[in-house]
């Protein structure tokens, strides 16, 4: 897709530090390196984000993720990894071509901070919301 930076990387028009490539997927180091070894796994076909993908295209993408993640773990000696996918601006998406972040973790105190703020459970509301999602 014209004007998509990841399509340009896939086409070789913009250089990248590739760590894995096959006919469906490319993985390369994120230019920002939130932690050392921070890698992006992208489908070669352009999709705005995961919310636009179907079962086949998303399966092809995610089928590669565990192996690439293990390669990154092995090469970096990381102790763990966050695997993250942002969808739409409100969720932090800045490049609108589907990508999965592999962020190796070396300590809980590095440059990646993820916070899930827990709330007191409202069980009737949970039942209602689950029903609504199930029906959607
Ligand atoms: P998002 O915020 O959309 O989930 O993540 C986009 C990521 O793409 C960011 O972490 C950013 O550093 C990375 N990125 C943006 N432009 C480039 C680029 O030209 N090359 C590489 N390797 N990464 C990029
Ligand atoms: Zn693209």
Automatic annotation (TrEMBL):
PROSITE patterns tied to this protein: HIT_2
UniProt cross-references to Pfam families, sorted A to Z: HIT
Sequence motif Histidine triad motif, residues: 97-101
HIT domain: residues covered: 5-112
Name of the protein described by the UniProt record: HIT family protein
Taxonomic source organism: Streptococcus panodentis
């Amino acid at each position: 897709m014209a004007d998509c930076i990841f399509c340009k990387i896939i086409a070789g028009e913009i250089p990248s530090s590739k760590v894995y490539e096959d006919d469906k997927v490319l993985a390369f180091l994120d230019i920002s390196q939130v932690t050392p070894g921070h890698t992006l796994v992208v489908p070669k076909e352009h999709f705005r984000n995961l919310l636009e993908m179907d079962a086949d295209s998303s399966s092809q993408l995610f089928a590669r993720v565990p192996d690439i993640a293990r390669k990154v773990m092995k090469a970096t000696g990381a102790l763990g990894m966050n695997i993250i996918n942002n969808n739409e601006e409100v969720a932090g998406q800045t490049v609108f071509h589907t990508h999965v972040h592999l962020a190796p973790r070396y300590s809980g105190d590095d440059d990646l901070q993820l916070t899930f703020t827990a709330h007191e459970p409202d069980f009737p509301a949970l039942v209602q919301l689950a029903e609504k999602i199930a029906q959607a």
